Amino acid sequence: MTRSERSPLLLAGLLAAAGAAHFAAPRPFDATIPRRLPGPPRAWTYGSGVLELALAAGIAVPRTRTVAAKAAAAFFVGVFPANVQMAVDWRHRPAPLRTAALARLPLQVPLVLWARGVARSEEGRS
């Protein structure tokens, strides 16, 4: 299997694992939900988990890969405010936790680029 064939499956696996984690251990995700969003944080946690699982499924299937990868790139941009919220909320926590929260911020960039690359690669095949 070539790198270009593995990349979408790895991205789908990452999204599936993250989506499942939203249900297996929702509390840490609840803490990242920006307070200005309406409704209970748990609803947003579960909703984003469902969305990640749906994106994973869409990327895993070649027929829906392009649109799902583009949606995943948008999703990674859309959850950036939650990462900012986490960094703000964790600014007084011990240094390793603060560092982890801050490290999540630039991590969104390679995720967006990865998803866009998967979409472009699939478009090139059509």
TrEMBL record:
InterPro entries: DoxX
Protein name: Membrane protein
Subcellular location: Membrane
Membrane-protein topology: Multi-pass membrane protein
Main location: membrane
GO cellular component, one term: membrane
Span of the signal peptide: 1-23
Glycoprotein among keywords: no
UniProt keyword annotations, A-Z: Membrane, Signal, Transmembrane, Transmembrane helix
Species: Streptomyces filipinensis
